[in-house]
Automatic annotation (TrEMBL):
GO cellular component: chloride channel complex
GO molecular function, one term: chloride channel activity
Topology term for the membrane: Multi-pass membrane protein
Subcellular location: Membrane
Keyword tags: Chloride, Chloride channel, Ion channel, Ion transport, Membrane, Transmembrane, Transmembrane helix, Transport
A Pfam family of this chain: Voltage_CLC
This protein's name: Chloride channel protein
Amino acid sequence: VIGVASGGTTFGTGYEQARGAVEGNALPLLFFVEKLAASFLSMLSGIPGGIFAPSLAVGAGFGSTVGSALGTSIALAAILGMAGYFAGVVQAPMTAFVIILEMTGDHQAVIPIMAVSMIGYVTSRILSREPLYHGLSRVFIAAAIRARRAAQKDSE
């Protein structure tokens, strides 16, 4: 429903929209809210939708909206939005910084990208002490422990 209401912009990974924002093309003002909602609902429903690319798209959308509202560079705002949001989602600021720097090749914005990555990380840690991938791995670890215990019981 969100995809149809957004004119199809929230379908898929959001790679094209993020690339457009990084190139300086403003995204629709509510794109980041729509993409965030679509990604969240996909995750809740169990439909595999990914974390990496949708997080970059939401961040680029947020940055594009802030850049438009402030009348500043859409491209820089999108890059900073991607870095901050992704660092917050994965709680890995150095990873976010390196990935965004490598993706964009924008070496003039090294310090702002680092700073926004740290802000995203700190904000995320305030909201959730456990990193996303650690929480997701708990399900797999618990299943492996249950399987090992079941195998031990069967062998006894």
